[in-house]
Amino acid sequence: MAVSLGFYLDANLTQPLTSSTLTLDRLIGGPPVDVQLFLGSTLTGRAFVGAVNDGPIVISVVDSVPTNDGFVPADFSMALTQVDLDTATAGAPLTINGGITSGAANAKAFWLRFLGTSTSPKTSTDLNLTTNEVKEIAA
Q1: Inter-CA distances, 104 with 6, 45, 128, Å
Q2: Taking burial as the number of CB atoms within 10 A of a residue's CB, which of 69, 78, 106, 116 is the most buried?
């Protein structure tokens, strides 16, 4: 059974994040681009925890084609608040402790910063946000 936990562009969980719904443009030499995203489920009465020992949920940027000439996970940083992006380690995963309960009001907001530096424009279609293995249970 597929887990109903997913990434969204909005706090109401009406705009699922797909590889074609998020475009990050950064001017060459310009400032980083920050975007707020949400991890949650639109179902009712569900809870989510990491599958190993009911542990944390860990979000990572994954490059499905590492030999591609596009951007890499180290071009991104993540944090629970926008201010914390300034000290976040580029390429590091983000840990969400305590699990997540379904419903838009319980979605976990987090920030993604695009740091990608390049002397020429690039497009990456092989980068994805993912979580560790997650267990979905009745809340």
Answers
A1: 11, 12, 22
A2: 78
Residue in 65, 72, 54, 49 with CA at minimum distance from that of residue 122 = 72
Strand arrangement of the beta sheet that strand 127-131 belongs to: 94-96, 57-63, 127-131
Query: How far is the C-alpha of 104 from the C-alpha of 121, rounded, in Å?
Result: 36
Give this prediction's pTM: 0.89
Nearest residue to 9 (alpha-carbon basis) of 29, 39, 31: 39
- The amino acid present at 61, given as its one-letter code, is V
- Find the length of the chain: 139
Q: What are phi and psi of 6, to 5 degrees?
A: -150, 170
Maximum Cα–Cα distance for the chain, whole Å? 49
| pLDDT tens by residue, 119-134 | 665 666 778 899 999 9
The Cα–Cα gap between 26 and 118 comes to: 9
Handedness of CA 131, 17, 123, 24 (dihedral sign): negative
What is the radius of gyration, based on Cα positions, of the chain?
15
